[in-house]
Design brief:
Elements: H1 2-12, H2 23-31, H3 39-51, H4 53-56, H5 60-71
Helix pairs in contact: 1-3
Pfam family, one: INTS7_N
Protein name: Integrator complex subunit 7 N-terminal domain-containing protein
InterPro entries: INTS7, INTS7_N
Length: 74
């Protein structure tokens, strides 16, 4: 439930995400869920990272992990 709330907040405030002072900390807390065994948690993390694309577009590790996560859903 909490992860869904984080996703909704990120989606509703996309135009304000550039005001986050510590992007690395915020990103790291979401990104660690990508390696979880819970498929629902991973899908919510992917959606959250998608809504954060404005502030994390220059991180190559995100692109690589998203690509791998989408490949592994087959």
């Amino acid at each position: 439930f909490l992860r869904l709330c984080v996703l909704r907040v990120c989606q509703q405030s996309e135009k304000h995400l550039d005001k986050i002072l510590n992007v690395s900390e915020f990103f790291q807390r979401i990104f660690t869920v990508i390696h979880s065994n819970d498929p629902i948690a991973r899908s919510l993390a992917l959606r959250t990272l998608g809504s954060m694309a404005i502030i994390i577009s220059d991180r190559k590790s995100v692109h690589y992990s998203i690509h791998n996560s989408l490949d592994n859903t087959q």
